[in-house]
Amino acid sequence: MPRQSGSEKPRPPLISGLPPQRRQELHDEIAELSVPSGPFYVMVVVSATIASYGLLTNSTAVVIGAMLVAPLMGPIFGISLGLIIGDRRLFARAFGAELLGVCAVIGLGLVIGLVPFRLDLGSEVLARTQPTLYDILIALAAGLAGAYTLAHERLSPSLPGVAIAVALVPPLATCGLCLSAADWDLALGAFLLFLANFLAIQVAAAAVFTALRMVEVGTADVVTVGDYLRRFSVSLLALAVVAVFMTHTLLKVVNDRRFRDTVETTLAQEVQSTTGAQLSDVRIGDSEGTTQVIAVVMTPVEFDPQQVTRVEQALRDRTTPDLELVIRSLLSKDCDARGPVYVSDEPQQEAAIPPEMEFLQRATDALVGSLHPVLGAQLAELKRDARPDLDVITAYVRTPIGIDPDQVAEAEKAIQDATGAPVHLIVRSIVTQDADAHRYLYEPSGEEPEPLTGEALRLQERLEEALGHQLAEHADGAVLTKFQSEEMGDRLRVLAVTQTPRVLAPEDVGEIEAKLRQYVDQRIDLVIRSAVGADATSDGYVTGGAPSQVSPPL
User: Fold this and answer.
1) Is residue 316 located within the same domain as residue 226?
2) Quick one: which of 287, 291, 296 has its CA closest to 321?
3) Fewer CB atoms inside 10 A, N or C side of the chain?
4) pLDDT at 103 (0 to 100)
5) Going by C-beta distance under 8 Å and a sequence separation of 6 or more, which residues neighbour residue 15?
6) Radius of gyration from C-alpha coordinates of the chain
7) pLDDT for residue 13
8) Is 442 part of a structural domain of the chain?
9) Mean pLDDT across 351-369
10) CA distance 371 to 443
11) pLDDT (tens digit, 9 = 90+) per residue, 50-95?
């Protein structure tokens, strides 16, 4: 074992009793910090003002500045030392200074909060209204550090850092601001945070003073553990009560956070089952014992009640049955030059594209290619209903003329070839007609057809007369505005465009079609496109006007 050099001095223990001279000096320093003097209250007012406006502007840096100049930690050390050494005069002066300082900070925060045009309470305020057990542990550590650095002159420069860690003035300023807003619960939470800090610092500092053998100056007595417990029994009991309350608050915060995480995870999973939909925001609240969840979703197509019911049931299964869900749909679509695209929030490599998005992208490309021959047709949206044996795809298409079953069949086959999966395609045609100042757009182009003559002209004339007569019979005020006919094998397809006060039902079309077959041509298959609208006077509908337009074959 190496011998110790005679020139080396033994290191002092980590905590040892202070010599009588240093004890007297420390006593005088703490007594000076605890005096309720003019400079003390000036610094209280300054720190309270800085903290209040820092909280209102939600500025962390300003709030930290208020902690640095706050003088309220000194009197707490005075209270602890006065109790531990039995100095009643020091205890009374320190307690009075602390009490008046607390009242001044709360009062000034209340006055600043009542000033017109004040800002709303932000996150810096709300962060100090729900104290937890962690705050007590921080205050205990800060009290130990503060008393220890105060007792050792070489460590005293660290004291401002301790003041920042424990934060005495901001909770009191928060309490005043919340009182000005008549929010009693938040004000109580902020005051409890200060009370926890006050008690924890007092108890921790007293423990350090006891370990340093800070007894009454000029005596040789030692403060025992029993003396410590007896003198600080009220503070310890109050700290225990506050700790129990803050433990409950901590557990509530943890449970709320877990509940929110579960809700957000479940919502994100369920929302993604709708193509192109993404969860944007979640708001959770309580109303009469029921948990209300509002989910803001960016989606190409708004969520219908059936989808909301499915998502709501998934949330209830994973959280609580007393839950109500509202989905706020924000219509949002991704599109490139070809049509709708399905992408995630972050760019991904080709191999990392989710199967759902890859399937829909291939189906979209195939459908857009199939619709290309139809002038003016545009794919608006694509929805997939994945079933165990078959994918049902519903396509919403804006088109000047309805997509017929043959075109749907071709598109369905193209999608099956592109995806390699059996699909059933449903095309929902949203009939639109675009026009500029000169003509209807997307009309078939080419040379003007030759005028009808002979039997073809007589057929068109009989069709026009019969259609006009039958429309008037089935809908008062109906006017034939346009019709087209086309030979399709052994059938004659007729498309009639009408202006009518109501949409003609399939039964009406069937009856008109039967009359046309009886009096005009037995080969006729009739389609009527109803444009709802009519001209009327006080005597009835007006059925005259411009002559109907006869179009060439389809």
Assistant:
1) no
2) 291
3) N
4) 92
5) 148, 208, 211, 212
6) 42
7) 40
8) no
9) 74
10) 16
11) 988 888 888 888 888 888 787 888 888 888 888 877 788 888 888 8
Q: What contacts 403, CB < 8 A, 6 or more positions away? A: 371, 374, 377, 397, 427, 429
User: Do 66 and 137 belong to one domain?
Assistant: yes
- Domain count across the chain: 4
Neighbouring residues of 378: CB distance < 8 A, sequence distance ≥ 6? 339, 371, 397, 398, 399
Whether 426 and 458 map to the same domain: the answer is: no
CATH number at residue 319: 3.30.70.1350
In a domain, 242, yes or no: no
Q: Is 268 exposed, middle or buried (0-12, 13-18, 19+ CB in 10 A)?
A: middle
Q: Which of residues 197, 231, 265 is at a domain's end?
A: 231
Digit-coded pLDDT (tens) for 524-543:
888 887 776 656 665 666 55
**Would you state the structure tokens that stand for residue 134, as one six-digit string?**
């962690």
Token readout for 18 is 């202070």
pLDDT digits (tens, 9 = 90+) for 98-143: 899 899 999 998 998 888 666 667 778 887 777 778 888 888 888 7
Residue 139 lies inside a defined structural domain of this protein: yes
Domain enclosing residue 539, as ranges: 454-550
User: Are residues 292 and 370 both part of a single domain?
Assistant: no
- The pLDDT, as a whole number, for residue 106 is 92
